Amino acid sequence: MSFIVRAITLDLDDTLWPFAPIGARIDQVLHDWMGVHSPATAAMYPVAAMRELRERSFRDNPHLHHDLSALRRLTLAEALERSGASLDLLEPAYEAFYAARNQVEYYPDALDALARIAARVPVAALSNGNADLERVGIAHHFAFQLGAREHGAAKPEASIFLAACARLECAPAHVLHVGDHVEMDVAGAARAGLRSCWINREAREWAHAEIVPDLQYTTLTALADWLEAHLPERDIATDHAA
Questions:
Q1: Are 45 and 79 in contact (CB under 8 A)?
Q2: What span, in angstroms and rounded, lies between the C-alpha atoms of 225 and 100?
Q3: pLDDT for residue 129 is more than 90
Q4: Which of 14, 80, 111, 207 could form a disulfide linkage to 180, CB 3.0–4.6 angstroms apart?
Q5: Contact between residue 194 and residue 176 where contact means Cβ atoms under 8 Å apart
């Protein structure tokens, strides 16, 4: 398949790195932090109880589903209050969480493929999560990062895709969105008028009844190969001068 790609929007969690190990580490880091700074909170909310509280906060606050940082602070505030701890601990606890959240372990192909992709077209990070590319250490590969929290709405809402296209100064039809999630990434992008690439690392069967991805690969390396076969290398010096 061949079509024009002038820019790429790229999902982060479960596209560049798996999120499950990060989530498990966050839970343990927070529990250990509370054990040192608020033992009463750690005793009342062991890992499983804190996870249950976080899931309830998510269910009870659908208006904040685009803002995972706000939801995390709600969870921490409730745990501190209920255990009789000072809310002065809220921001230090959040910082302990956020430091752990930005410690990622990439898929083996991810970094090399990302560099190859960014050599061909501008890449914008487009994520419902709250990773910070500066902290993660790969911001130099991206034109910008647009998160659901900053935008005010999450994928698969069309508005976040279209906002990224506007910042890239590209028509949606010339932007390829790349991600792992069938609904949030592929279907959301397609409905907004973008091209879509499904990164299907587990080789699942495509099950969406109405939408088919324009491209489908099990690795980002395969996407980099496709781009190199179809696009000239970017003149990055010209990009920067512009």
A1: yes
A2: 33
A3: yes
A4: 14
A5: yes
Question: pLDDT tens across 78-116, in order?
Answer: 999 999 999 999 999 999 999 999 999 999 999 999 999
* pLDDT over 60 (residue 226): yes
Of the candidates 209, 146, 207, 210, which has an alpha carbon nearest to the alpha carbon of residue 177? 146
| CA separation for the pair 212, 116 (Å, rounded) | 25
Residue 215 has which token pair? 């491209």
Q: Please give the angle made by the CA atoms of 217, 154 and 159, to the nearest 5 degrees.
A: 90
Angle at 234 between CA 161 and CA 132, to 5 degrees: 45
Fold of 20-101: Four Helix Bundle (Hemerythrin (Met), subunit A) (1.20.120)
Domain ranges of the chain: 7-17+106-241, 20-101
Q: Are 128 and 68 in contact (CB under 8 A)?
A: yes
Give the span between the Cα atoms of 74 and 88, in whole angstroms: 14
pTM, rounded to two decimals: 0.91
What's the fold here for domain 7-17+106-241? Rossmann fold (3.40.50)
Q: Name the H helices within the chain.
A: 20-37, 39-44, 47-60, 68-82, 90-101, 110-118, 133-136, 148-151, 158-168, 188-191, 220-230, 236-241
DSSP classification of residue 27: H
